[in-house]
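Hypothesis: this fold can be encoded by more than one sequence.
Test: take the structure tokens below, design a sequence, compare later.
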């Protein structure tokens, strides 16, 4: 019957099609996974760019001045007026001051009436203020009064030449009523006293540097003096010394030093001083001795200065970049040139036949001993070298370790020797301009122990 006819339906398996895109994706996925895994597990080399720099290591001190000075006393009563400028050099017959029964009257010049300072006087005032500002400490507030006196001295002496001219006229007109006194000897004139004029090295104590009882008395024109009062001070020798207190570490470091480098804070002058250490009980004092320039600091008793322990310029590299490597050392005479490009190399003995030329890289030269440094990896142990144009031979068994860093400019590590000039806590200053060393803007491995010669650096 038509209603009972059954249809025979068969299910066919779907045909599989090759998907090239999926394969490519899988390959890329595996490659990226392996690359990321290698990156995460490999030792990474951080680079450091070499730059020129300097290291300055210094200690700041307030020094106490010792010198050959004499306080000259008035020979009679009267009002004192000065001929010589403070800080000037005088001879034994130079007129220094006069004594008069009455206070002398000086006429004011037009510059005095206008109250204007000359350019030299303005510079002197600014220098005093700058020196005070740089060295001021709250616990030494008395320095403010010293600054005040110094500035007042400049202001009062701004028309000194005019006053001296008037004083000359008065001396000629007054006859014997105006007594004139000359310098007792050659020296530098100073119109102040402080009670430390006779102090010697043996008198130095820690209390002197505290300046607690320090008082400087200025001597001015037209002041009334009595017999025996100080009228001026004379510094009779251009050799002078500065004493500074030293801690134990600095004293031990400088104990064998004969000369040290100094910078004065007052005028930023840099000079070299003879150095010695004077010990008193448990305290060491450094004694800095100078043979000139006393006139610049004639009015000072305390002097701010910097003791420059190190001051070097060169290439600045981190200490972490430095490592050591062992090299063969041979006499420079064993080097020769060979090959098509005339490269540097050595002649290696290989039995009875002619020696074979072997290209080498020289890592450093010692000019004094005539030795050169060659990579140990380039030769077998006990390799025999033949000297060019000679029958002399040598066995490569002498080695030496040298300090250096790994240059990575070309994408692989190359050892470069360094000559250290000075150091700080984290950096070295090394010599620049060496044929086998570093140059400005070179890139080196930040961690020198993390790489080896010819390691590829990504």
């Amino acid at each position: 019957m038509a209603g009972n006819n059954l249809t025979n339906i068969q299910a066919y398996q779907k045909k599989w099609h090759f998907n090239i895109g999926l394969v490519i994706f899988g390959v890329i996925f595996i490659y990226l996974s392996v690359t990321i895994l290698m990156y995460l597990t490999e030792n990474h080399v951080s680079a450091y760019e070499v730059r020129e720099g300097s290291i300055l290591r210094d200690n700041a001190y307030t020094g106490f001045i010792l010198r050959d000075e004499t306080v000259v006393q008035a020979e009679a009563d009267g009002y004192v007026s000065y001929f010589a400028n403070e800080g000037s050099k005088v001879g034994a017959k130079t007129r220094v001051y006069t004594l008069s029964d009455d206070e002398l009257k000086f006429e004011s010049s037009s510059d005095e009436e206008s109250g204007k300072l000359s350019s030299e006087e303005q510079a002197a005032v600014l220098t005093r203020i700058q020196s005070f500002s740089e060295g001021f400490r709250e616990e030494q507030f008395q320095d403010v009064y010293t600054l005040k006196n110094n500035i007042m001295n400049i202001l009062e002496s701004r028309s000194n030449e005019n006053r001296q001219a008037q004083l000359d006229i008065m001396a000629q007109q007054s006859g014997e009523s105006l007594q004139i006194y000359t310098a007792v000897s050659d020296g530098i004139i100073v119109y102040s006293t402080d009670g430390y004029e006779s102090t010697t090295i043996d008198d130095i104590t820690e209390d002197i540097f505290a300046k607690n009882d320090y008082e400087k008395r200025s001597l001015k024109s037209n002041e009334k003096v009595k017999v025996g009062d100080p009228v001026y001070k004379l510094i009779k020798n251009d050799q002078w010394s500065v004493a500074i207190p030293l801690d134990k570490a600095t004293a031990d470091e400088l104990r064998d030093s004969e000369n040290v480098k100094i910078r004065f804070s007052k005028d930023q002058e840099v000079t070299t001083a003879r150095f010695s250490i004077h010990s008193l009980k448990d305290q060491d004092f450094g004694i800095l001795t100078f043979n000139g320039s006393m006139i610049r600091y004639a009015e000072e008793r305390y002097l701010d200065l910097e003791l420059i322990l190190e001051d070097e310029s060169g290439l600045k590299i981190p200490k972490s970049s430095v490592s050591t490597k062992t090299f063969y050392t041979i006499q420079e005479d064993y080097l020769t040139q060979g090959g098509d490009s005339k490269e540097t190399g050595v002649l290696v003995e290989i039995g009875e036949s002619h020696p074979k030329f072997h290209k080498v890289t020289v890592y450093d030269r010692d000019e004094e001993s005539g030795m050169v440094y060659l990579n140990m990896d380039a030769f077998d142990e006990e390799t025999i070298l033949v000297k060019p144009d000679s029958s002399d031979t040598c066995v490569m068994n002498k080695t030496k370790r040298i300090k250096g860093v790994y240059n990575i400019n070309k994408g692989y590590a190359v050892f470069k020797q360094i000559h250290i000039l000075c150091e700080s806590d984290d950096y070295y200053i090394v010599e620049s301009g060496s044929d086998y060393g570093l140059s400005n803007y070179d890139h080196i491995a930040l961690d020198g122990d993390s790489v080896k010669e010819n390691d590829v650096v990504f």
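The radius of gyration is 41 Å. Residues 323-417 form one domain.
Hypothesis status: open.
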